[in-house]
Amino acid sequence: MRRKLVSGFLVVCFAVIFSGCSGLKEDIKCVMGISTKELEKGRSNAVKKTFNYDFDTCFNKTREILIKKGSYIYAQDKAKKMIAVYLSAASYSADANSDSISTPSGDTTEVGFFFTNIDANNTQIEVTSPSTYAKDTLSGKVFLALEESLIEQKEKLSKVNEKKPQIDQQTAPVKEEPVVSQQQPKVENVILSVQTKPVEQSQTQGATNEKKQ
To answer: Mean pLDDT in the chain?
Structure first.
């Protein structure tokens, strides 16, 4: 009788497990309470924002920021464009490459980050969580850090651009201005003016002689 009860209990447990999760890996995660399916379902209510990063840069920077903020990454998949974390895990070292499944002693509220390529230079991030507080808190921290990183990049780029004109002015060759030649008077006009003067003088002398006579 006792064996039947135990076996029946086990059958019920397995039935619940396999009905709620699909795949062996997802079954284990579901038992441990770290399945990412609920996070994916919550994308309709996600906090969204688009950043001027390509996908790889956005994914890697978000991962680095999450680790710095003390969150524990329990699932990450570049192919699925997703990172899932616990809000905080004080007892864990910041190693997100481990495949081991265990429960940290910190705040185990799940938060998911989903990435969507808008174009080659822009990526949208969606943050989901069963907890509105966890979703708003962690999305605010990560979004702010991403924006600050963008501002730093723009400031560095502007400084580089400011130095470029100074270098160009120093190295640019000096342009010589063309010499404008002054036009010389035509020789024909000079000769004509010289020839006309004696004629005029002779005419005036003849007129005076006629008056005297």
So the answer is: 73
Mean pLDDT (10-residue bins), the chain, 213 residues: 48 50 47 70 95 96 94 94 85 44 65 96 96 95 95 85 64 61 54 50 54 52
3-state DSSP of the chain: CHHHHHHHHHHHHHHHHHHHCCCHHHHHHHHHCCCCHHHHHHHHHCEEEEECCCHHHHHHHHHHHHHHCCCEEEEEECCCCEEEEECCCCCCCCCCCCCCCCCCCCCCCEEEEEEEEEECCEEEEEEECCCHHHHHHHHHHHHHHHHHHHHHHHHHHHHHHHHHHHHHHHHCCCCCCCCCCCCCCCHHHHHHHHHHHHHHHHHHHHHHHHHHC
Instruction: Check: CB of residue 102 under 8 Å from CB of residue 52.
Output: no
Strand partners, 127: 47, 113
Give the pLDDT score at 33.
44
Q: Which tokens in the block code for residue 97?
A: 């490459």
